[in-house]
Design brief:
13 strands, Gfo/Idh/MocA family oxidoreductase, Gfo/Idh/MocA-like_OxRdtase_N, seven-stranded mixed β-sheet, six-stranded parallel β-sheet, Dihydrodipicolinate Reductase, domain 2, Rossmann fold, alpha/beta, oxidoreductase
Length: 333
């Protein structure tokens, strides 16, 4: 297979290296709006660079991986689909709800597969938690706790175009909550705070957030988010049932320590960031995309899944701004 990759930043370079390692992939062709960055990435990884996105689309691709800036996602997705090229795109589909719905409308009636990058669906822990819920071994769920705590904030220039903490960071939790529980969220109540750098406030964003979600069967879910977890990158999901509990992300590298006397410290080292925490999941996700691109499998996470997660992020952002509970139905279009 000949695969293209648009966007050679950190995650793009990582994905290009992963794709190159698959036996089924004969060539990886990369492009970036910064042509020099694309050339440097290609030279380092031993893949092919072209000078522009137009050249990338003219390279005879069997599939396209989109890791460009979020505001470029809609045009790249729709252009690939119009050209009959299966596409994998890192979340989100677009920077806002209007853009997301426009892409979905454009794709209506097309049979070209699109896979959106929610890598937690390919993590072994989340997969096990989903199976435990589906089997009934946990009993009925009474509480779900989701945690995404970054070790440090992103660059200041990223924040104004990120969409905000709930859309940029929390959207992963919202997607995986739906996927693991098999339920839909009916209402949210979210708050946010700022105790870190001023650039979050200047962008109208928050550096820490908390949300309570109510599922359609009455289960209560809490979501905790922060850009300032200096102990290390911490992503967990606690699923608590009437019969048993299960925790995702509670391993030797989680940045936690017990305050109880005599309890040994975890061996570590802690995860420094999301790339290290989810590297096996990213590999599995891209391997699945090869099957999707070859039409051997259906997309495991399409644009409608991404839309549902985005609705929850939108509802949380509205709740944060207006300081009130928000029914998800309020933001649906």
């Amino acid at each position: 297979m000949k695969l293209g990759l648009a966007g050679t930043g950190r995650i793009g370079a990582s994905h290009a290296e992963t794709l190159k390692g698959f036996d089924e992939v004969g060539e990886v062709v990369v492009a970036d709006v910064d042509a020099e960055r694309a050339r440097a990435t290609a030279a380092k990884l031993g893949v092919t660079a072209v000078e522009s996105i137009d050249a990338l689309f003219g390279a005879g691709l069997d599939g396209l991986v989109v890791t460009a800036a979020t505001d470029a996602h809609p045009a790249l997705i729709t252009r690939a689909v119009d050209a009959g090229i299966p596409v994998f795109c890192e979340k989100p589909v677009a920077v806002d709800l209007t853009g997301t719905l426009a892409v979905i409308e454009h794709l209506t009636g097309s049979d070209v597969p699109v896979q959106i990058g929610f890598q937690r669906r390919f993590d072994a822990g989340y997969t096990a938690a989903r199976a435990a819920v589906a089997s009934g071994e946990l009993g009925w769920l009474h509480t779900v706790r989701a945690t995404t705590l970054d070790a440090g904030p992103p660059p200041a220039e990223y924040v104004p175009r990120s969409g905000g903490l709930f859309r940029d960071c929390g959207v992963h939790d919202f997607d995986i909550i739906r996927w693991v529980t098999g339920r839909e969220v009916t209402e949210v109540y979210a708050r946010g705070g700022n105790r870190g750098e001023r650039f979050f406030v200047d962008a109208g964003d928050v550096d820490t957030g908390a949300a309570t979600l109510t599922l359609d069967d009455g289960t209560l879910v809490t979501v905790s988010l922060s850009r300032y977890n200096g102990a290390g990158h911490d992503v967990r999901l606690e699923v608590l049932g009437s019969l048993a509990n299960i925790v995702v992300g509670l391993d030797d590298r989680v940045p936690l320590r017990s305050a109880e006397p005599g309890v040994p410290a975890l061996p570590g080292p802690v995860y420094p960031g999301f790339m290290e925490r989810f590297r096996p999941a990213y590999t599995s996700e891209l391997k699945t995309f090869l099957d999707v691109a070859a039409r051997r499998a259906e997309s495991p996470c399409g644009v409608l899944d991404a839309l549902e997660a985005f609705y929850l992020a939108e509802a949380c952002e509205l709740s944060r701004r207006e300081r009130r509970p928000v029914a998800v139905a309020e933001v649906r279009r």
